[in-house]
Amino acid sequence: MKNRLKNILFICSRNKWRSLTAETIYKNNSDFNVKSAGTENSARIKINSKLLVWANLIFVMEKHHKEKLILNFPDETKNAKIIILEIPDIYRFMDNELIDEIRISVSEYL
Q: What phi and psi values does residue 7 have, to the nearest 5 degrees?
């Protein structure tokens, strides 16, 4: 049985390599609405309350991203499903290894 359309949010630090790659991989999948953001002030798209409330499922690349979300958005994250992917900041946008890591890490949740 198909799930209803899920709103999926990918988060890394600057939203330039990891989370943007994840968004790019999944954005054309008709089962999901996908967005990405970053936790740093220098992020391409900075995380905000509206994005967190929009998301049914939030994937963060590292533990410190989840900690930052909970610290800065306690109300929005109280009941949120936040999954830590454990993908370090060692890749560039759309690196093949990064794509593989994201797909493998995310697959069990989608």
A: -100, 115
